[in-house]
Amino acid sequence: MKKRKPSEAASAAQGVASALSAAYRRVPEFPYLDRATTLIMIACVLGYLGLTAYIFFSMPPIGIEAKMMEGSLAKNSALALSPGEKYTYVLESPDGAQQAAYAIGLEPSCAGVAVSETVGQESQAICILKNGMLSDHAGEEVNSNFGNRSILLFSPWMLAASENFSWDVDNIYSAQGVTMTITTHFASKGKAALAGRESYEIEVGDSSGAPPARFFIDSEKRVLLYADLGNVTVRMIGAPFALDWSGNAQK
Asked: pTM of this prediction?
């Protein structure tokens, strides 16, 4: 093996030192910090990011289990939606307004009524069974109708609305031995005259502390007349019955 001459080794070492010195001088100086402190801080940040990335990519994903448990529900009305009916809502938010349209029909594959929903450019078809439950592809029936199959027009729990309606739904989340339960509570605030119709005012809140939403349910047809969801309001503007909002200027 050929040995490097002392002069060549010194020259190489000087070149490396010059390169390191040049790189050091290119390190930016943050306000109130000298270049050495800045370099140490950058090294710490890079080390932290590297450790975080290692932990993120090397650890197995955390599985979260979610389930919903409903309290007993006593329905006092039958499903009143009929084929041929059409309903229209206006949804208003700080971003503007858009309409949601519903058409009630019949489908051979639906043992009840088929509801076609159109909101903006999106549409979906929902099957509501004769008992008022929403048909799910997985065969599951729930009364709360919270989730991907939800529609503004109707939820199964609306068939239980009354002046003293009270109902709880527990949403239970579990991960790595830790369980958290968020309870959604439905409570009637009594009857209210709205758009020339008689309705039940239902307040819906949960144990997370978020402001409750308000739903006004038509007492005859058991569909949504009006909802205040905080930053979004929903108001029925078209129906197979007369609507008169002149006496509800605040809505």
From this structure: 0.71
